[in-house]
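Troubleshooting log. The previous structure file for this entry was overwritten by mistake, so regenerating from the original sequence record. Sequence copied from the archived sheet and checked twice against the printout by T.R.
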Amino acid sequence: MTISYTLTLNEYQEAVNLHYKSGKRPLFIAVFLGFATFMLLVGTDFSNTREVINNILMTFFSLAFYILFTRMITAYQAKRFYLKSPTLSHEETLRISGKGIRHEQKAEGKTISWDYFSKWKSNDKYYLIYTKPHQFNVIPKRVMNDTQRKELEDYLEKYL
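Regenerated output below.
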């Protein structure tokens, strides 16, 4: 099976967001929220209404700032990486077979065996195929028909 596509900046940023949605970030937010709630309960004099409202607002805005800040940093880093990458913004041609995945535009044209890939995930728009915990290849579903999607998923389920 051969797939050719050009990944846009927006698509790459969406793929990075997909990567982080199933990562450890939701766990960090839950721990932060739990710690903030604990500090709110321990450090608040509940007889003073003004202090209660101030502490609740401070907790809410600090959590909102953390979530917004991490999303902004993620988008900025993804954009910077995309713009500096010599290959992400160019046309990519992949040959996918039982041996592995072959990048056609590379000079040596070596096939990357399925053994080098560790896991994969997908949503309604993309496949992410991981070589390391934070390094992945993005394949947009828009460039494949239903038969190619089924074939790719069969390879992924068989070898990963």
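Residues 16 and 78 are 7 Å apart (CA to CA). Archived copy saved in two places this time.
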